[in-house]
């Protein structure tokens, strides 16, 4: 019996080591993902396929470092330099996955169905957001329901215990399928709702988004990484990697 346990443990350890050695390289697609129709939105080398909102290219505070899209900013400066990053392409029904990590107390988000037009000065005037915030110390967001990491920002609250502390990678997934919206944080479903029905319109009407009549109405739009929040310890750094999408 004792010998069997030792052999089993040794096999488990060797299996884990082998699995780690075969871990998928960041910003790549496995053969299975390719066969399923996944596409990379970030190649790990440059910001091809992205630009800052209402601009022709990424702002100066966005760069690529060590296989990640990095925003590094202060609390002041020219807003054009840290304006939200958006995809060149638009998406309708999709499964989006990405990873992010940040410095303590920072704040960001992932928006979708963003309609880019001079009519709207900011991405959040049209695009709903899956919130990014340090659970421990982002103020006031970490103390406010509906504004914590994984929330459908200012609309629906998630199970906030699913976010890792600052400095660790977190996994986000947004599934948008003909109005059925699901958020996953680190593998756990945290939001499950429907857009564009009467319940959705009533929900939006009770929030600050009611001041923007086109918010949450578009059924196709850009994916956006938020850079305009100035919360957190300086210098504020937010990293994104393994950004991939599958159209449904």
Question: Which residues sit in consecutive blocks of at least 5 with pLDDT less than 50?
Answer: 2-22
Q: What does the largest sheet look like?
A: 8 strands, antiparallel
How many domains in all?
1
What name is given to the CATH topology? Answer: Jelly Rolls
Overall morphology? globular
Tally the beta strands.
13
What structural category arises from helix and sheet content? alpha+beta
Tell me what portion of residues adopts beta-strand conformation: 25-35%
- The level of helicity is 10-25%
- The second-level CATH architecture is Sandwich
Mean of pLDDT: 91
How would you name the CATH homologous superfamily? Exo-inulinase, domain 1
The radius of gyration computed from the alpha-carbon positions, rounded to a whole number of angstroms, is: 19 Å
**What is the N-to-C order of secondary-structure elements (H for helix, E for strand)?**
HHEEEEHEEEEEEEHEE
Please report the number of helical segments. Answer: 4
CATH class: Mainly Beta
Distance between the termini: 51 Å
InterPro entries: AL/BT2_dom (IPR010496)
Keywords: Signal
Pfam family, one: 3keto-disac_hyd
Domain 3-keto-alpha-glucoside-1,2-lyase/3-keto-2-hydroxy-glucal hydratase: 37-246
